[in-house]
C-alpha cells in the first residue's frame, strides 16, 4: 500500500436547447482520477478509473517528445510544464517530472485536465504502432525458446509484471545469456531508489527459486535512464540536507 493517496474529482457538464424552447436537456460526465505515490519520488501514478490502452498486454514508455509521436495524449502531457516522461499501462498513466525543484502541486491541475479532456474525447491513446510494437511482446514464448527461457518469460509475465505495474512501472525482457537475465525497467521503476532491491531481492530470488539456471539479473540502462537517476540522486541529497520544504 502506498504512503499517500489522493482522489481528484473532475466534473464537466454542458447543456443545449432542444427544439422545444420549454425544455432544456443537459448531460454531465464525471471522471475520477486517483493519484498514487510510487517508490520513485520523481514519478506519480494516475488512475482515471477506466481503461487507458485497448491492448492490456502492452505498455508504452515515452522518454522524449520525439518518441511520443504515436500518442496524441502523450504529446499533450509533454506540453505540461515539468513533465519529463510519460508511461501508459492498461489502466494507469505514470508521469515523471524533470526536476526535484518542480512541484507536483503545480503540475497536477494541468495533468488532470489533460487526461480528462483527452479520455472523454473518445480518441485513441495510441494512433499507430511502430514496427517494434507490432512484434510479439517481450514475454511471448516463441517456438525456438528452450525450456529455461520459456519458464523465465512465464514467470516475468505472470508474477513479476503485475507486481511492478502496481507501482506504476513495467519491465522488458531483453534476453538470457550465460545465466544472466537482462531486463529494462520502465515508468516509475526508472531510476527508482528501490529498483536494485527489486531486481536482486525480488526478481532474482524468485527466478532462481524456480529456474536454477539463472545466476543473475541485470538492469540494462540507456542515456535517458541515467539522466533520471542523476536527478533522483540530487533530490535525495537535498532531502538529506534538509533543504526541501
Report on the structure:
Residues 33-122 form the Scaffold protein Nfu/NifU N-terminal domain. With 245 residues, this protein is of the alpha+beta class. The chain folds into two domains: 34-121, Scaffold protein Nfu/NifU, N-terminal domain (Ribosomal Protein S8, Chain: A, domain 1, 2-Layer Sandwich), CATH 3.30.1370.70; 136-224, Fe-S cluster assembly (FSCA) (GMP Synthetase, Chain A, domain 3, 2-Layer Sandwich), CATH 3.30.300.130. Helices cover 33% and strands 26% of the residues. It has helices spanning 72-78, 104-121, 147-166, 195-210, 223-241; strands at residues 5-15, 26-37, 43-47, 60-62, 83-88, 93-97, 169-177, 180-187, 216-219. The strands form two sheets. Strands 1-2-3-6-5-4 form a six-stranded antiparallel sheet, covered by helices on one side. A three-stranded mixed sheet has the order 7-8-9, with helices on one face. The two termini are 25 Å apart. The model is unreliable at 1-28 (pLDDT under 50).
- Residue stretches low in confidence (pLDDT < 50, at least 5 long) are 1-28
Strand adjacency order, main sheet? 1-2-3-6-5-4
What percent of residues adopt helix (DSSP H or I)? 25-40%
Q: Determine the structural class based on helices, strands and strand pairing.
A: alpha+beta
* The CATH class of the largest domain: Alpha Beta
Largest sheet: 6 strands, antiparallel
End-to-end separation in angstroms reads: 25 Å
CATH-assigned homologous superfamily of the largest domain? Fe-S cluster assembly (FSCA)
Helices and strands, in order, run as EEEEHEEHHEEHEH
CATH-level-2 architecture of the largest domain: 2-Layer Sandwich
Keywords: Iron, Iron-sulfur, Metal-binding, Mitochondrion, Transit peptide
Subcellular location: Mitochondrion
Domain Scaffold protein Nfu/NifU N-terminal: 33-122
Function: Molecular scaffold for [Fe-S] cluster assembly of mitochondrial iron-sulfur proteins.
Amino acid at each position: 500500500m502506498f504512503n499517500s493517496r489522493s482522489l481528484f474529482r473532475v466534473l464537466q457538464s454542458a447543456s443545449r436547447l432542444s427544439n422545444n424552447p420549454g425544455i432544456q436537456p443537459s448531460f454531465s460526465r464525471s471522471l475520477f482520477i486517483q493519484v498514487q505515490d510510487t517508490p520513485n519520488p520523481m514519478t506519480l501514478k494516475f488512475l482515471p478509473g477506466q481503461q487507458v490502452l485497448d491492448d492490456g498486454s502492452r505498455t508504452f514508455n515515452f522518454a522524449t517528445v520525439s518518441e511520443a509521436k504515436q500518442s496524441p495524449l502523450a504529446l499533450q502531457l509533454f506540453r505540461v510544464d515539468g513533465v519529463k516522461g510519460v508511461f501508459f499501462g492498461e489502466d494507469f498513466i505514470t508521469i515523471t517530472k524533470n526536476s526535484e525543484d518542480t512541484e507536483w502541486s503545480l503540475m497536477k491541475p494541468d495533468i488532470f485536465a489533460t487526461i480528462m479532456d483527452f479520455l472523454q474525447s473518445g480518441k485513441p491513446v495510441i494512433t499507430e504502432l511502430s514496427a517494434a510494437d507490432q512484434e510479439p511482446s517481450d514475454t511471448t514464448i516463441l517456438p525456438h525458446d528452450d525450456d529455461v527461457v520459456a519458464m523465465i518469460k512465464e514467470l516475468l509475465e505472470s508474477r513479476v509484471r503485475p507486481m511492478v505495474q502496481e507501482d506504476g512501472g513495467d519491465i522488458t525482457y531483453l534476453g538470457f545469456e550465460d545465466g544472466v537475465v537482462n531486463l529494462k525497467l520502465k515508468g516509475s521503476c526508472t531510476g527508482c531508489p528501490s529498483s536494485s532491491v527489486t531486481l536482486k531481492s525480488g526478481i532474482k530470488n524468485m527466478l532462481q527459486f524456480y529456474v536454477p539456471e539463472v545466476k543473475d539479473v541485470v538492469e540494462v540502462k540507456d542515456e535517458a535512464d541515467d539522466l533520471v537517476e542523476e536527478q533522483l540522486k540530487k533530490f535525495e541529497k537535498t532531502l538529506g540536507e534538509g533543504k526541501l520544504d
